[in-house]
Design goal:
The chain is mainly α. The protein is 41% helix and 8% strand. The two termini are 13 Å apart.
């Protein structure tokens, strides 16, 4: 989901929420949309953990993609995000914005 009046200079991951003008940044997960689609609380917790590992974990992004893929290899929800990133080829991917204090926690929208 991309918030109104926000620009998108890169692909937004499935279940992601982009926000910002003129160029948006990935602001977290679209929790409201996930709830509306009937996603369970456990699914949302797994998805949130995978999101944080992908965008705020240690190491290079490619290494984090591989690590998340291994950890959640039997999870179709997280698998959609990993497949989306891998299938993107040379297209730019919207990166997550850091919190105001620079910490790496990732803000989910509610």
């Amino acid at each position: 989901m991309i918030a109104g009046l926000s620009g998108a200079a890169g692909d937004v991951i499935p279940f992601g929420f982009a926000l910002g003008t003129p160029i948006g940044e990935l602001a977290g997960l679209n929790i409201i949309g996930l709830r509306r689609r009937g996603m369970s609380r456990a699914d949302m917790h797994r998805l949130r953990r995978a999101y944080r590992l992908l965008f705020f974990g240690e190491g290079h992004f490619a290494e984090r993609i591989d690590a998340v893929s291994r950890e959640y290899q039997n999870d179709p929800i997280v698998g959609r995000i990993v497949a989306f990133i891998r299938d993107g080829g040379s297209r730019p991917l919207m990166k997550a914005r850091p919190l105001r204090d620079g910490s790496a926690a990732g803000g989910d929208t509610e």
